[in-house]
Amino acid sequence: MNSLNSEAFVVFGQHILWSDMVGNLFGLAALALGWRRSIWTWPVQFLAGLILFGAFFGHLTGSAGKQAVVMVVALYGWWQWQRGKEQGGDGHIAVRFATWRERAAMAAAAAVGTVAVALLFKAYPTLSWDPWPDAYIFVGTVVAMYAQARGMVEFWFAWLLVDLVGVPLNFANGYAFSGFVYVIYGALVLWGLRDWWLRSRQPARPTLEGAPA
Q1: 3-state SS string over the chain?
Q2: More confident residue, 20 or 206
Q3: How buried is 3 (Cβ within 10 angstroms: 0-12 exposed, 13-18 middle, 19+ buried)?
Q4: Which residues of 63-92 are buried (b: 16+ CB within 10 A; e: fewer)?
Q5: What is the arithmetic mean of pLDDT over 169-187?
Q6: Predicted pLDDT of residue 201
Q7: Cβ burial 102-121 (10 Å sphere, 16+ → b, else e)
């Protein structure tokens, strides 16, 4: 990973690392594939997490840990979408809005998880430079990916909330390309939200045997 952690170029005074750039480009591709409900979103997300793990490991241990969790959740998402890929009637997973009980559970998990991880980061300062926002992004990313794995439209709302903190935090910590990509994430999330929202209103139609896909 040493070569990936070298500087790629400098733009507007910001030093862009190869690992930061390549990992986030894969992450952007994963989000676009998620919008299209392609199961390949998960292997690409796993690869993005692996590259960013190498980018953060050694000096932003908390962020590296987040990427390790991202890889685990990506494996869970792959498994979930493999099981449910026929539910949408077009060979892809069906999307839906979460129930109020599911929303409450995710909100509670996000709140409790953020506090717990932030306290861990504060207890071990080498894990993070900014314990509270880093914990918020850490836990928010996991919650968003869980909702995506379950085909919940709320996945996109969770990503928007992560973006609100992710953009300034990445710029502040010197990961300029991550910051730029989070801005693009915001636009892509809005388009993906609209698509999944509309799809959630359509009844799933089973594909007839022999009918064109």
Answers
A1: CCCCCCEEEEECCEEEEHHHHHHHHHHHHHHHHHHCCCCCHHHHHHHHHHHHHHHHCCCCHHHHHHHHHHHHHHHHHHHHHHHHCCCCCCCCCCCECCCHHHHHHHHHHHHHHHHHHHHHHHHCHHHCCCHHHHHHHHHHHHHHHHHHHCCECHHHHHHHHHHHHHHHHHHHCCCHHHHHHHHHHHHHHHHHHHHHHHHHCCCCCCCCCCCCC
A2: 20
A3: exposed
A4: bbbbbeebbebbeebbebbeebeebbebeb
A5: 71
A6: 84
A7: eeeebeeebeebbeebbebb
Structure tokens at 184: 């693009």
Mean residue pLDDT across the chain: 81
